[in-house]
């Protein structure tokens, strides 16, 4: 590999992009990230990095080949981390074509830009793949050999991304690989993903700023890890001798209901769940108040309900520790962050408060 250490992160404003940028800056990389024009400048996750001499931002969109070619030609990265995506599974049912363009064709645009610019020998590429590829699962736990059965427009698009990366590796001998990452969360997680929705609601309910939390499928099972630990693996995958795909997971599974239980416990509320399906309720044991209810607004046309990863290969070949941060520690980190955030909310943060209200009412999913 080249001595120059120049990384390009698409999706640097996202949860993973922001942690990865921090990690690569610590490792001495020149870090370049792509951003999109938006009517509000909302770059909260990377605000602390802006202005650092080795951190650079460029406008580019995965839907726009010219911008991708332009930024890669200018930066000549030695490593590309393609993290940009429409990453919300439920939203992919509402915007399937956009999701396909960004999450499927967008990957092709990055690969082809590297090839056309003659950078195949000098640039390694990481593709943010996903456990959603296993979808309607055909075995548990899932490893690198488990058959895929994508079960949403998001997963179908990501499946194209996975296969086109493999194709470019074989056809053009490019160093490009996919990390098949299981769900990873953090205090920077988007507020409409289930874990963050729960930790924010627990904080707001505890502080008297929300009455109830409405959720969809409480029985859905996920293998949840800490995003900060997972970005290290992205880097390790590109430092490997050979380009290979890896499953990245903790190997431990919990339900949405359990996540809820632990989050509320952290704020001092013990929940008891009673009832089944749509009638299930999470009740405050101390007061008898119903704090969690099920709303069909959050059901998906097809839902992935049994994700559980086997990280054996990543442990053996990359020396990665999947259990650096435990499930309970992850929940506590997120809840503690949101208790402080909610306590600091005031009238000037009305927009964010409105989002909380919309989430509660199911207007935003
Ligand atoms: P995220 O917080 O939603 O961040 C997504 C990033 O992609 C944001 O920076 C977003 O920019 C950018 N983006 C969206 N559409 C774009 C477009 N058309 N052109 C350029 N950039 C665009 O997602 P994340 O949780 O960090 O996940 C990172 C990647 O890993 C995604 O590809 C996701 O699908 C994948 N993944 C995530 C998980 C997980 O559990 N977190 C698991 C497996 C795979 P804006 O800020 O401008 O919206
Ligand atoms: O938090 P989620 O929205 O994450 P999901 O669908 O697993 O997708 C995330 O992880 C994938 C990796 O497996 C990534 F590829 C993807 O980009 C994203 O980061 O939902 C988790 C589960 C689902 O089964 C959902 O039906 O929680 C269930 N759920 C129940 N109530 C809910 C809710 N999900 C959301 N977002 N909101 C609810 O109220």
Question: What's the topology here?
Answer:
Blueprint: E1 6-10, H1 15-26, E2 30-35, E3 55-59, H2 65-75, E4 79-82, H3 89-94, H4 96-116, E5 124-130, H5 153-172, E6 176-181, E7 184-185, H6 194-206, E8 213-215, E9 221-222, E10 225-226, H7 227-239, E11 246-248, E12 254-255, H8 256-266, E13 271-274, E14 281-284, E15 290-294, H9 312-318, H10 327-344, H11 350-361
Parallel strand pairs: 1-2, 1-4, 2-3, 4-5, 5-6, 6-11, 7-10, 8-15
Antiparallel strand pairs: 9-12, 13-14, 14-15
Helix pairs in contact: 1-7, 2-4, 4-5, 6-8, 6-10, 8-10
InterPro entries: GDP_Man_deHydtase, NAD(P)-bd_dom, NAD(P)-bd_dom_sf
Cofactor: NADP(+)
Keywords: Lyase, NADP
Q: How would you describe the overall organization of this protein?
A:
By secondary structure, the chain is of the alpha/beta class. It is built from eleven helices and 15 strands. The longest helix has 21 residues, at 96-116. Helix 2 packs parallel to helix 4 (96-116), helix 4 (96-116) runs parallel beside helix 5 and helix 6 (194-206) runs parallel beside helix 8. The strands form four sheets. A seven-stranded parallel β-sheet has the order 3-2-1-4-5-6-11, with helices on both faces. The radius of gyration is 20 Å and the shape is globular. The model has no long low-confidence stretch (mean pLDDT 95). Helices cover 39% and strands 16% of the residues. The protein binds NADP nicotinamide-adenine-dinucleotide phosphate and ligand G4F. Catalyzes the conversion of GDP-D-mannose to GDP-4-dehydro-6-deoxy-D-mannose. Its cofactor is NADP(+). InterPro entries: GDP_Man_deHydtase, NAD(P)-bd_dom, NAD(P)-bd_dom_sf. This is GDP-mannose 4,6-dehydratase. Pfam families: GDP_Man_Dehyd.
């Amino acid at each position: 590999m080249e001595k120059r250490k120049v990384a390009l992160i698409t999706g640097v404003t996202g949860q993973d992009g922001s942690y990865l940028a921090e990690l690569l800056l610590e490792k001495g990389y020149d870090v370049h990230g792509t951003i999109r024009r938006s009517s509000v400048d909302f770059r909260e996750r990377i605000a602390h990095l802006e202005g650092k001499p080795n951190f650079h931002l460029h406008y580019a969109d995965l839907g726009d080949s010219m911008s991708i070619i332009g930024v890669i030609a200018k930066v000549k990265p030695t490593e590309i981390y393609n993290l940009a995506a429409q990453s919300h599974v439920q939203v992919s049912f509402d915007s399937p074509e956009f999701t396909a363009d960004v999450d499927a064709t967008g990957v092709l645009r990055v690969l082809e830009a590297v090839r056309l610019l003659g950078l195949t020998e000098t640039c390694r590429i990481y593709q943010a793949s996903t456990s959603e590829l296993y979808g309607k699962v055909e075995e548990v736990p899932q490893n690198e050999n488990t058959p895929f059965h994508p079960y949403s427009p998001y997963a179908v698009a990501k499946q194209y991304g996975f296969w086109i990366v493999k194709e470019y590796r074989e056809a053009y001998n490019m160093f490009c690989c996919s990390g098949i990452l299981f769900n990873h969360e953090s205090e920077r997680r988007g507020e409409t993903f289930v874990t963050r929705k729960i930790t924010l609601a627990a904080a707001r309910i505890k502080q008297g700023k929300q009455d109830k939390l409405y959720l969809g499928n409480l029985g859905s099972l996920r293998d949840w890890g800490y995003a900060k630990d997972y970005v290290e693996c992205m880097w390790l995958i590109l430092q490997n001798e050979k380009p290979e795909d890896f499953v990245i997971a903790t190997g431990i599974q919990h339900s949405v209901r359990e996540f809820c239980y632990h989050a509320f416990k952290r704020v001092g509320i013990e929940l008891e769940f009673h009832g089944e399906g749509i009638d299930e309720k999470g009740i405050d044991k101390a007061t008898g108040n119903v704090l969690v209810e099920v709303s069909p607004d959050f059901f998906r046309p097809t839902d992935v309900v049994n994700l559980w990863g086997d990280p054996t290969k990543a442990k053996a070949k990359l020396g990665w520790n999947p259990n650096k941060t435990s499930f309970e520690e992850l929940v506590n980190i997120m809840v503690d962050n949101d208790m402080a955030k909610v306590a600091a909310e005031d009238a000037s943060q009305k927009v964010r408060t409105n989002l909380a209200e919309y989430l509660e009412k199911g207007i935003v999913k």
